[in-house]
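Shape is hard to put into words, and the shape of a protein is harder than most. The fold becomes a row of whole numbers, each drawn from a learned catalogue of backbone shapes. The outcome of that step, for a single protein, is printed below.
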Amino acid sequence: MATTRREFIQNGLSFVSLGVAMPTFLMRTAEAVAADANSGTNGGKILVVIEMSGGNDGLNTVIPFTDAEYTKLRPNIGIAAKDLVKIDAKLGLNPGMKSLGQLYEQGHVAVVNGVGYPNPNRSHFQSMDIWQTGDPNITARERTGWIARYFDADGHYKGNPLSGVTLGSTLPLAMWSQTSPVSVIGNGQDFGFGTNGAGANKFKQMETMRALYAEGTVASSHAEFIRNVGQEVYSSTAEIKTALKGSDNKATIEAKYPNNNPLAPRLQTIAKLIGGGLNTRVYYANIGGFDTHANQPNQHSYLLGAVADAIAAFQRDLALQGRDKDVILMTFSEFGRRVKENASAGTDHGAASVMFVVGKGVQGGSYGGYPSLGDLDDGDLKFHTDFRSVYATVLDRWLGTPSNKVLGNQFTPLKFI
């Protein structure tokens, strides 16, 4: 019986001799590697996706300060109107998001209110899977990510392991595909093969491995598959290191990324890779901690401030590089929070929330009427904007791929692009 690539990977790969440690990138993406890589069009439009994991409280992110129900439902964790970063006559941003408010004033931020999907799921895992697959009915179909399906639909990038790059330690489901490889690169500095040697010994080990993977073989399809994957790792590592070295360090310094910020280093690395000419269409990064069941006000404000300040520095960096017209950034979270505060000065799992889309290519403003606090769905804000409409807008109008091919249906685009 023939062995599939999936079965081969699941049965385990064992690499011995030469003291070489197989990178986690290889194990996570090996079964998705195609034999040939297409180069794509450098300098094209780029999407950066920020996952705010844990379930961000949209009601204390964008606050309807003129709604009397807000204070009644949140007497302890509600935010006073005088402290808000007001974006119009009825809505204000959390006080921690001053830097995002400044970008909003410049017309570079789209605030999409009341975002969700039918029959919302309050499980972190299931709802996150729904957002990452772009399918509320994921049990009825194969689990592939919406970004990965975009790569499958776009012939320019299919087969290129650097078409999608995740900054972090794990591959998000949004990037998972059976056919299109992507890369998980950590901080970008240590991506690639590791050895147990140093100096001349390390050089010899690496040269031996390069020769091993460069030599063709007809011994078995498995051996050839492993060789192809090894070559992909080497070429991808070289491209990433070249991009980091070729980036504009002056722009990074002048952008003034904030210290002690969990998101800033990842956006800084992304900006370096963009500036260095890496041929990547979608970048993905994560910031966690938004599961604010207790003592929410300080924690939530800190996290929102970290997101806002990191994004502001990232936009400054892109502007200094002259790439700010080529990149947009989109945030999402798996769900919002309950409207009524709980007894622990926090909020529990809810439904509809808010998304931000940021960039010079964005038509700034507030999109979608704010859900009524007097007309709730079992204690939750009612959604009125399907998150797939946001995805469709990005796919159709920014990435240039028909969204129905990716999402399996047609969703009404918004006007922020």
